[in-house]
Design brief:
Layout: H1 2-6, H2 9-32, H3 38-65, H4 88-97, H5 105-137, H6 146-167, H7 172-201, E1 206-208, H8 210-235, H9 258-261, H10 279-307, H11 314-336, H12 341-363, E2 365-367
Parallel strand pairs: 1-2
Helix pairs in contact: 2-3, 2-5, 3-5, 3-7, 3-12, 5-6, 6-7, 7-8, 7-12, 8-10, 8-12, 10-11, 11-12
């Protein structure tokens, strides 16, 4: 029993670390806005939480792309410690056995910083849910408990997937769903920021035609599929399976093994039977993502220009088009420049930015047949 209690020590230390990190933005918001109302402070805190969550998604991509996901191969601590400082001997021993393996001092710190940031985001979201409950308890019926509570539940699910990412040794499906979970978290926080902005400014949602609203919603659906495909490429390390553009391996239709490539329940680098993946399966994973990218980019480009007909939507449509340009250039550089780290991280960031922009549009708009286009 004593050993089991002692095993909780790293988890408690990590919770304390996450709480301390979360206190920094929380104190900044309260000190920065000493005379602001509670609703205004919560609005700023939600925006800050969105910003930190966006950074967490980028750092998660950096962790994955530097092969640091198993820098500390246990969870939640690092070889039973709250930080790599206490695990230096274990890390050095592992690195001595496998100098080019997944465990090094640098990778351990990258992985643990990612966990600290994740716990801080969880702490901030818990705080937002607590404030929402407090305001409703005080009689503020304008405050919705639904979205803060659902966001809190979602970040708990996301944390569970983060644990499974480590304990299941980078199982591709789990890692892909963990990435998608981060995008959903961004969407939930973006929606809350936009709803709070509309409430604080006492402004109405932008009226757009029902077909255009539906087209924007469909664009978000297409983007969701494409993010999942991109995550599947990244988690299977299939980016360089096609290192030419626009053709793949100097062919418009290279040899591909779709069945093996899109068997989802399997470990990294092997098929469902435990045999090594053939190269044609990686080609299929990459090329499907590339072909889908053509469709998604053309559709979202059309959507961006269509939304410019509604004057209040022009700033958001400019952001949408700018993110598409970023995705185009980072996607091409990943292929032609052999997957440079900064480009790969920015490609994930561009996808996250697209999610934020589309959700911002949808939350700030309302379908109406009486839309005035100018």
């Amino acid at each position: 029993m004593t050993d089991k209690l002692l095993n909780l020590t790293p988890a408690l230390h990590l919770l304390i670390m996450g709480a301390l990190v979360a206190m920094l933005p929380l104190c900044w918001v309260w000190l920065r806005n000493p005379k602001a109302s509670m609703s205004r402070r919560v609005q700023v805190l939600t925006l800050v939480t969105l910003f930190i969550t966006f950074d967490l998604v980028l750092f998660g991509a950096f962790t994955r792309l530097t092969d640091s996901g198993l820098g500390c191969p246990d969870w939640p601590g690092c070889y039973g410690h709250a930080s790599p400082l206490g695990a230096q001997a274990a890390i050095a021993a592992e690195q001595m056995q496998m100098p080019d393996g997944p465990v090094t001092h640098t990778k351990a710190w990258i992985e643990m910083i990612h966990r600290y940031m994740a716990m801080a985001v969880g702490g901030l979201i818990l705080t937002l849910a607590a404030f929402a409950g407090l305001r409703r308890w005080r009689g503020d019926t304008s405050v919705s408990l639904l979205w803060p509570t659902f966001t809190l539940l979602w970040v708990c699910v996301q944390g569970a997937f983060g644990a499974l990412t480590v304990t299941m040794k980078l199982f591709p499906l789990i890692v892909t769903l963990h990435l998608m979970g981060g995008m959903v978290l961004l969407a939930l926080l973006t929606m809350q920021v936009q709803r709070q902005r509309l409430a604080s400014e006492r402004s109405q949602a932008i009226l757009i035609r029902p077909m255009l609203y539906a087209a924007t919603l469909f664009g978000l659906l297409l983007l969701t599929v494409q993010v999942l495909l991109g995550g599947w490429v990244s988690t299977n390390y299939a980016v360089l399976a096609c290192n030419t553009f626009p053709m793949c391996q100097n062919s418009w239709w290279p040899l591909m093994n779709f069945e093996q490539g899109f068997t989802f329940w399997r470990h990294l680098g092997v098929d469902a039977n435990g045999q090594p993946l053939v190269f044609e399966s990686l080609t299929a994973i990459h090329y499907v993502h590339r072909l889908a990218a053509y469709v998604v980019m053309l559709y979202l480009a059309w959507l961006g220009f269509a939304l410019r007909r509604v004057r209040p939507m022009i700033p958001a449509s400019n952001w949408l088009l700018a993110c598409l340009v970023l995705q185009l250039f980072t996607g091409l550089s990943n292929v032609l420049l052999e997957w440079p780290l900064i480009s790969a991280v920015m490609h994930t960031g561009g996808a996250a930015a697209l999610v934020v922009v589309l959700v911002w549009m949808l939350t700030g708009a309302r379908a109406s047949h009486s839309t005035v286009l100018n």
